[in-house]
Amino acid sequence: MEVVNARAALLSNYEVLQLLKEHEAEQLVHAKAAFAVKKEHGTDLNAALPTDEVIENLRTVEFEAIEYLSAPFQPTAQQSAEGILKLVRSLAPESLTKAEKLQIANLAPTEPIELYVIVEELEERMLDKMDDILQRVKDSLDDSANANADGAPRVVTEAELATLAMDIDGNDGWDKDGNDDEPEYVDDEGAFEGDLDLDDD
């Protein structure tokens, strides 16, 4: 297997949760169908069913990710595809990096201290716009709450997810940051490649 494009898309926590729930529903349908065929024909279909340990580990990770992203302290319960799309579009004119926009969508900060943690050098870059950004986040959550006012879980269509992904990946979302000089490669050990030469010559 070869990674063709390592940064093909930025996905918000909400999108990841929706995709995992969709995958879980598909797995359930396939398992029910396989069980029905097995019961009807009385044949042993265990060889055809995925029982590999890797598949079980994947299911465990998916289940735990769904549980975490669905937790009451996560903003994903209050978000919708429309709300995130509205938020990302409203943040487009600001001088935020893609990563900062993604973290704002994921963490949905409602207090100034939360925004200080997300936006680097907030006081220097956009202190006067901080309240406006927080209000945009609150508005996006309010819109999402109104969309889910009946209390029933809202089903997100594939078209909505595709629209959100297109806006996030295209020029209408994350890419309008005015900051094209982001480093392409940063060494995980804290230094840029070639910065330090500690060899004793």
Automatic annotation (TrEMBL):
<dbReference type="InterPro" id="IPR005574">
    <property type="entry name" value="Rpb4/RPC9"/>
</dbReference>
<feature type="region of interest" description="Disordered">
    <location>
        <begin position="168"/>
        <end position="201"/>
    </location>
</feature>
<keyword id="KW-0539">Nucleus</keyword>
<dbReference type="GO" id="GO:0005666">
    <property type="term" value="C:RNA polymerase III complex"/>
</dbReference>
<keyword id="KW-0804">Transcription</keyword>
<protein>
    <recommendedName>
        <fullName>DNA-directed RNA polymerase III subunit RPC9</fullName>
    </recommendedName>
</protein>
<dbReference type="GO" id="GO:0006384">
    <property type="term" value="P:transcription initiation at RNA polymerase III promoter"/>
</dbReference>
<dbReference type="InterPro" id="IPR010997">
    <property type="entry name" value="HRDC-like_sf"/>
</dbReference>
<dbReference type="InterPro" id="IPR038846">
    <property type="entry name" value="RPC9"/>
</dbReference>
<dbReference type="Pfam" id="PF03874">
    <property type="entry name" value="RNA_pol_Rpb4"/>
</dbReference>
<feature type="compositionally biased region" description="Acidic residues">
    <location>
        <begin position="178"/>
        <end position="201"/>
    </location>
</feature>
<dbReference type="InterPro" id="IPR006590">
    <property type="entry name" value="RNA_pol_Rpb4/RPC9_core"/>
</dbReference>
<comment type="similarity">
    <text>Belongs to the eukaryotic RPC9 RNA polymerase subunit family.</text>
</comment>
<feature type="domain" description="RNA polymerase Rpb4/RPC9 core">
    <location>
        <begin position="1"/>
        <end position="144"/>
    </location>
</feature>
<dbReference type="InterPro" id="IPR038324">
    <property type="entry name" value="Rpb4/RPC9_sf"/>
</dbReference>
<dbReference type="GO" id="GO:0000166">
    <property type="term" value="F:nucleotide binding"/>
</dbReference>
<keyword id="KW-0240">DNA-directed RNA polymerase</keyword>
